[in-house]
Hints:
The complex is a heterodimer of chains A (about 300) and B (about 550). Chain A has about 300 residues and is an all-alpha fold. Chain A is about 70% helix and about 0% strand. Chain A has helices at about 1-15, 15-20, 25-35, 55, 65-70, 75-105, 110-120, 125-135, 145-150, 160-190, 195-200, 205-230, 240-245, 250-255, 255-270, 270-300. The two termini of chain A are about 30 Å apart. Chain B contains 17 helices and 16 strands. Chain B has two domains: about 45-180 and about 360-435, 3-Layer(aba) Sandwich (D-Maltodextrin-Binding Protein, domain 2); about 185-350 and about 480-550, Periplasmic binding protein-like II (D-Maltodextrin-Binding Protein, domain 2, 3-Layer(aba) Sandwich), CATH 3.40.190.10. The interface of A and B includes residues 50, 141, 159, 249 and 263 of A. Chain A: Keywords: Cell membrane, Membrane, Transmembrane, Transmembrane helix, Transport.
Amino acid sequence: MSVRTEGKKQSRFIKDLPIHLFILPSIILLLIFNYMPMAGIILAFQDYKPRLGLFHSPWVGLEHFRYLFTYPDSKQVIWNTFLIASLKIVANTVIPIGFALLLNEIRLLVFKRSVQTLVYLPHFLSWVILGGILTDLLSNKGLANQALGWLGIPSIYFLGDGDWFRFTLIVSDVWKEFGFSTIVYLAALTGVNQSLYEAAEIDGAGRWKQTLNITLPALIPVIVVIMTLSLGNILNAGFDQIFNLYNPLVYREGDIIDTFVYRVGLMNGSFSFATAVGLFKSVVSFILIVVSYTIAYRWGNYRIF
Amino acid sequence: MKRRLTVVKSLYTALAISVLLAGCASNGSAGKENGSTANSGAGGDSGANEAVTITTARIVGGDVTFKNGEDIDNNVHYKWAKDELGIILKNDWTVGTGDAFTTKLRLMVNTNEKLPDVFRTGDLNLATQLIDSGKLMDITEAFEQYASPRLKALFEQYPQLWYPVTVDGRRYGLPITNAVSSSNVLWIRQDWLDKLHLDAPETMEELEQVMDAFTNQDPDGNNKNDTIGMSVSLRNGVATWMASSDFIFGKAAMPTSWNKGPDGKLQYGSVQPSVKEGVSKLAKWMKKGYLDKDAGTLDESKAVESFIQGRSGMVFGPTWMASGWPFTADMNFDYKAIPLPSGIDGQQGFMAEQLTSMQFYFNKDFKHMDRFFVYLDKIMGPGFYDTESEFANGWAEGYDYVMENGEPVYDHDKIPGGFTDAKKYTLFYNDIQTPKMELEVMAKLGEGNAPETSYDKQFASRDKRWQEGAAVLKTYMDKASVLNEMTGPPTPAMSKKSELLKKMENETFLKIIYGSSPIESFDTFVEQWKKAGGDEITKEVNEWYASVIE
């Protein structure tokens, strides 16, 4: 019996072989561009000299990692990255959910659609352009401070004062990205069974009660999945954004691992050290992704495999 | 079943075709390579007129344009070289960007691919790797033997040009000179000076008085306290390429620059005591509102905007600021260039443009250095402002100029088919300038002299303020230039530690200027700087300096 099914399976595999071959190019590309470069990780354990190449550079073991953790700035940099990224993750979850809920209450479809598109637009702007715009907008004589001036509040140096800098980073990031997440949540909202609302209405529940007892619980699996998956990004605080906005005044509060690696690795040509930092980041991210996948698996009913 | 067969068949056909195509491509390139090596290998000491091939590799960016169906392998300049000099210029390979170029060369260090005969780069890290790999030619003798007299004279005048390419007393590359003709002047609002009955400032005290008046006496007359004394950019430190504040530090010590100290050794400018005074001066100005409150977040071009918009009274920078960018024709007020006021030590001083930032390197198997130097001298004609040069009028008639009644005309509209920048086809991808020569010509025009030579005429169409700026700059350029003397590749300690030190420096300076740290933190910075690697770097820099200076 079992032998027969095995034989059947095999013959089917052979029969489908030409079709299977179609994915071969993608697999080859994946191997070449995603897996082969991983061999470059050995750079992190070498004192890499381009002239000696990957195979002849001297081995230094964990020297670069030791250097990373004794480097006077690294604690500060790791902490900044962690703090900025976590605040961004939280803000980028809470605000889009709130916004999606509000938008969901709107019955006028034209208005709903146009708002949805408008808040989505900043997502397409590059940080290089936004960096220039924000520098103007948030300068001491910029629009933001003029508005504060009318309210009688003294001007704030958003990009030059450390604590305000972090605040600015998070607010501007949310402003740029919340439209995108809003769409995800809106999509989840359309999936809620309408008969639940009808039943609730018959039971006498108002819109607030309906939101609290039907909509939010329906969203929880999506929220859990998105939140936990973004944990993998806990060490990505947004290079593009910070690189275009930071300056020496806010190094202490705004310098993150990526900007630090950029300055050390690319500007100074310390490839090995930069690789070591990158590897450290990847390992932390990998652990967090495994943990968060387990969480999503348990509570979000989320399955990849 | 039949259908599946057709799918498989067509797959095979596609595969076969692509294999065939790939075969063709590799055959073609292999043939080409063989040809070029055979050519350049033939005959060591070739006769003056015998045709020789010089191979190169180059960046062909978006700035290189063509006309008449030409391309980078076959164009008016390559044709000229072949017809006039018997030199066949051949491109081994071309790439689109400088990064790709460096990457490709870096890979070539590790492989056994043949380096081009001649190529240029400004990346000293890469050059050091190439020198270490033993693939580059030591040109010490070739230069003595074949370089033209005027080129030799140039290198005798500026012996420090050799330092970046010198290893153990031997020279492994040919540095290409920069124009060094535009840094730096102080741009000031003449109408504001007139309105407030002030003279152009010459000393630090006068400068402060003028800034105070510009800030507080409403020079733009709109009854609002909205003007500042000077536009500066502090985002990338106190010494930068435009809207800089480096002239404040005078000549005693220049931040970020390595200069000779009293003991004859190189010392790092940013940690010298006079810099502390300069930084505290900036702090004072920031407090009094002379500077833009946003200076710390503004990069160079953003910082200049306040001057362009008429909110600021001064900005320090190169004369070419009047070339159309960043200054524009819309600036409807009277501004001009004046000599920089003396700095904190009572002397005029500014961070000078480097003498060289690009070098030619040669494959060690390259046989025709004699012919290369002939070619180089020809294309350097305009750089020497040689009126006899065949490029005196321009690089190619019908490309960047046309002749009208025996006179060259540079009006782009008059060139049939439009302007095409033929100097981009040279082995240097540009014209080669020599230090201070452009300044001489521009200053002559700025002093009001009528244009005589073809070079004068080419520059005569430039903005009047640019020319006048050159005339101003010429009066003090030599005595006020502070040249960074560390021109070699980064030392080992520098590669490892300079990031930390630079961050520390910029943070300390900016926090003092913004008043969030006391001036005393400068002393702490100096101590930390020395301990965290500064002393080690200083030692290595001086070892390097001793090795090149002999």
